[in-house]
Structure formats: C-alpha cells, structure tokens
Amino acid sequence: MELQIIQNKIYEIRGYKVMIDFDLASMYGIENKYLKRAVRNNIERFEGDDFMFELSKDEANTLKNNIKCRFGTLEQSWFRYPPFAFTELGVAMLSSVLNSKTAIELNRGIMRAFVAMRQLILNPPINEVKELQNEVRELKQYIEDVFTDYNDINEDTRIQLELINETLAELQVKNKWGNPYNPN
Predict the structure, then answer these.
(1) Residue 44, helix vs strand vs coil
(2) Most buried residue among 33, 48, 64, 87 by CB atoms closer than 10 A?
C-alpha cells in the first residue's frame, strides 16, 4: 500500500499518533467487527494507552467530523461502537493477533509510515528561503564587523599621524628658534 495513503490515516489523539480500527480493518481486508473481536480475545497484548485505547464519544465525534472534512464521506456503520485507536506499538501487536500474510505485509508498510512521520517531525524539510535569509543576515553581520574593525584601525592610524605631525611641528619650532647654525 502506498505510504502517503497510510500516512493520511494516521491521526493525533491524546498526544499519540494513532490509526483507527475501521481504517486498519479496511486495509487488512477484513470487517471491523473481526478486528475488534481479535483484539478483545487478546486484550492482554494491548494493555496501556501506549498500545491501544477506546475513543470517548467526544473524541469519536471530533474524529468523525475531521474525516468528513478531509474525505467528504464516511461509512455510517463505523460509529455504532466507539472506535479503537492503535498507536504504533498497537499496530505492531496487531500483526501477531491477525496472523495472516496480508496483515504482516501491511504492517511493514504501516511501520514505515509511522517511522517516516517521526522522521518528518524530528527533521522537518529545510526551508531554503529561510536558510538564505539566515546566511544573508550572517554575511551582513560579518561585513559590519569587518568595517567596524577597519574604521577602528583608521581612527587609530589617524590619531597616530596627528601625534607624529604635532611632534614634527614641535621639532621644527625648536630647530627654528633653538639652532644657532640655522641660517633662517
């Protein structure tokens, strides 16, 4: 199954990235009631919210509205019972409960989708315009620093030249008045 299709079926609920039971059942090619039955028969494998949890009515309604906004249609039968939300760990555990070739192959794709989403969150795509703006800002700061140093050197040099000129002027005055051998 295409990675983008799977990624579109990953939602954030209660701070977890999750997939919903009816999406998983559809991808596995089974009815949702069979997926739920398999989970309930092996509930000890799914203990803890970090594997799976049942949506509250409010969460289910929010999800239902979100799906309608994204896809325009929604199968009515999925809402009879609150859906299960499976985290990445829970989806991995499903492969042991739904032990079929299809389930195993699909789980590989789903795991790759979760990993790709995690990588996207940890390493967001580079914004080239932002990167160029930062480089221009750094270059501008560097140039300002260089000119500041240059101006400081020029100011120091100017002061030294003034001191040399004053000293020469004083020496000329001394030589003019204090040197008896000076013909002027």
Answers:
(1) helix
(2) 87
**Average pLDDT rounded to a whole number, residues 45-63:** 90
In angstroms, rounded to a whole number, what is the distance separating the alpha carbons of residues 78 and 55? Answer: 12
* Helices and strands in the chain: count of H runs, count of E runs: 7, 4
Of the pLDDT bands very low, low, confident and very high (cuts 50, 70, 90), residue 70 is low
Q: pTM of the entire structure?
A: 0.56
Taking each helix axis from N to C terminus, what angle separates 101-122 and 88-97, rounded to the nearest 10 degrees? 170
Map out the domains of the chain as residue ranges: 3-122, 127-184
**Structure confidence by residue, pLDDT tens digits, 18-35:** 999 999 998 888 899 999
User: Which residue blocks in 32-127 are alpha helix, DSSP H?
Assistant: 32-41, 57-71, 88-97, 101-122
Strand order in the sheet with 84-86: 10-13, 16-20, 84-86, 52-54
Residue 173 three-state SS? helix
Q: Which residues of 100-129 are buried (b: 16+ CB within 10 A; e: fewer)?
A: eeebeebbeebeebbeebeeeeeeeeeeee
Q: What are phi and psi of 11, to 5 degrees?
A: -120, 160
Burial class (CB in 10 A: 0-12, 13-18, 19+), 20: buried
77: pLDDT strictly greater than 60 = no
List the structure tokens of 123. Answer: 């390493």
Distance, CA of 64 to CA of 76 (rounded, Å)? 10
